[in-house]
Amino acid sequence: MSFEIVEKSQVLREITLTVPGEIVKRIEGKLVEDARKTMKLKGFRAGKVPASLIRQRAGASILEDARRESLQVSVREVLANIENLIHVSEVEIVTPKTDDGGFVAKFNVEITPELEARNYKGLEVTAEDAAVSDEDVAAELEKMRERHAVIEPVEDRKIVQDGDVVMTTLSAPNAAAEKFCRAGDRQISVGKGFLNEDMEKCLIGASIGEPVQLIAKKDGEDDAIVTCEVKEIKKRVLPELDDAFALDTGDAETLAELREKTQKRLMDDAEKARDNKIEDELLKQLRDAMPIDIPEGYVKARAAQAIRLQLEQMMRQQINDDMLARIIQNIKPEELEEYRVDYHNEIILNAVAKAENIEVSEDDTVAEAKKWFQHLDESKIKNWLKTNNAAQFVGDQVKRDRALELIKAAAVIKKA
User: Fold this and answer.
1) 224: which of 93, 160, 216, 359 fits an S-S bond (Cβ 3.0–4.6 Å)?
2) What is the reported pLDDT for 47?
3) Is 150-237 assigned to CATH 3.40.630.30?
């Protein structure tokens, strides 16, 4: 077996692999011998079927298996010679059969880009102070009232008003309307965007029991039209903003305490948002200062795996390899930008952690994993850390977090 590696970029290598016929023949012979041990033919004792007869009956299939196995063995040998390997592409057979019965294949591999951390201290960032106004607190309390609203029937009128919750039956939507709604019984909160905005406006003034057409006009397209019959009118009733409401939320016993806790929560969120904005700006400056070649195949595989996990959680079933291949095929280059940025950040922070000799203990790793799996006890977390290189994965994340904290601590934060 021989191979040639051509450096295409900082992270991309193209490999041409030549598998000689002798390797294919050796593996083919082994497979034939294995078949002799198990094949049963009338007139022959077990294990005594002639190799020539086996080749006559299953030679093409065995030879194909031998070529496949020889390719796998040869690729593994090549990959053992490549340091910092992170991704391997599909293997393509470029010469199906050489003169000696072998073949030639090509494939690409990607490696982790090398980066030396530099100029990561003393970066300047402008950020506003975190602040929460009385109006912000009032708006948040109003949202809480909305979440605790109850729906009650309207007894004193039969005409729909803005803000009503209307029980309706929709029928006969035209082709354009089918993009916005479907026929059948629907509960519509008028003015809340549950239906097309134009259609919801048509509901205002409608009477119970009298059909009304809901029309949405679209520039350059046919009007969307659906027939609606109002069955019942209800309204959202918000609770009073008082001590009883505070107690009902489960967050406080008095309205004053609820205001105080709401203000603190909003301030915590504002400070976290400010901190995230500072981190994003610092990392952007570092990406500009320390560019790398992005291993696109590896990034795409990471994106596909993330999507796979999300879908499996939603569907509550595992996604097979065929579906994963379709996911990868349908990911658009622009959709990968978030994953490119995340990977670039990782490489930079790994380099900073290395430059600063940041070390992580086993206790540090366990403490971090506890944040990820708060529902698991410590013994189960420790067992998980022993599997599939999990301890290194978690430890590397801790190192990156500490590297980022170091960069932030050394940065100059200017007030906007």
Assistant:
1) 216
2) 66
3) no
Q: Which tokens belong to 262?
A: 């709401």
pLDDT at 228 over 90: yes
**Would you identify the CATH topology of the domain 2-111?**
Alpha-Beta Plaits (3.30.70)
> Whats the size of the chain, residue-wise?
416
Q: Which of 16, 214, 186 is nearest to 104 (CA)?
A: 16
Nearest to 208 by CA among 160, 254, 249: 160
3-state helix, strand, coil in the chain (%, to 5): 50, 20, 30
Give the β-pairing of 412-415 and 124-127: parallel
The greatest distance separating any two alpha carbons of the chain, rounded to the nearest whole angstrom, comes to 97
CATH tag, 273-415: 1.10.3120.10
Residue written as token pair 């809480």: 144
Task: List every span in the chain annotated with CATH 1.10.3120.10.
Answer: 273-415
pLDDT-based confidence at residue 46 (cuts at 50, 70, 90): low
Tell whether the model's pLDDT for residue 36 goes beyond 80. Answer: no
Query: Buried b vs exposed e over 356-372: b needs ≥16 C-beta within 10 Å?
Result: bebebeeeebeebbeee
Mean pLDDT of the chain: 91
Both structure tokens of 46: 């077990």
Q: What's the token pair of residue 308?
A: 């796979």
Angle among Cα 296, 297, 303 to the nearest 5 degrees reads 85
Q: What mean pLDDT comes out for the span 350-363?
A: 96
99-103's contacts with Cβ under 8 Å and 24+ in sequence apart are 100/20, 100/21, 100/22, 101/21, 101/24, 101/25, 102/18, 102/19, 102/20, 102/21, 102/22, 102/23, 102/24, 103/18, 103/19, 103/24, 103/67, 103/71
Rg for the chain (alpha carbons), in Å? 33
Which two tokens mark 356?
């600063």
